[in-house]
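Can you give me the bound-state structure? Components:
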Amino acid sequence: QKEVEQDPGPLSVPEGAIVSLNCTYSNSAFQYFMWYRQYSRKGPELLMYTYSSGNKEDGRFTAQVDKSSKYISLFIRDSQPSDSATYLCAMSMYSSASKIIFGSGTRLSIRP
Amino acid sequence: NAGVTQTPKFQVLKTGQSMTLQCAQDMNHNSMYWYRQDPGMGLRLIYYSASEGTTDKGEVPNGYNVSRLNKREFSLRLESAAPSQTSVYFCASSSDSPTGELFFGEGSRLTVL
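Here's the bound-state model for the whole set.
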């Protein structure tokens, strides 16, 4: 069983919809949770970073961590075609980047 | 601002051939990394270097070697390429900030026939 599970999609929604992307994990020691966005044929870029449980909001994006359920989510409000990308969840027990475990990514397509 | 630059972007090798992937960053970061990305497997760490002169194995180091040439440059070498090494390779760097944010290059697509 992988430490981090993520539905690969693809997920296709109409423009303006609310998108929910999710990951589950098995290691209860994870404390640092991230979402990276990867456009086609590009490298990933950090979108959201959360330490421990709770919510974090940045513009149209909200990251949510539920450590009791070992479940993290990324919500995208008022989705735009420019949000079409692969979204990778990532997590770590430590703040060191060398210890980050990545999910396999969910491919998201926003239809105009 | 170039960030992390990888070369080459594409490469086709025959089984048994060797090659080196080059990576350079201009953000004055101490730490650099090499990942591979395969469908359904996500990003997996091959090797990393926490500072100039040091390197450490990641999750999947077999079949690879690395060199941290200086603070800017970190190369990945395949001594005898195998079809299982067909993948997209990403170089990344990070600062010492608490978030440990990774900055990635655009990737090198390698096919081993």
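A couple of observations. Chain A is about 0% helix and 55% strand. The CA atoms of residues 65 and 111 of chain A lie 28 Å apart.
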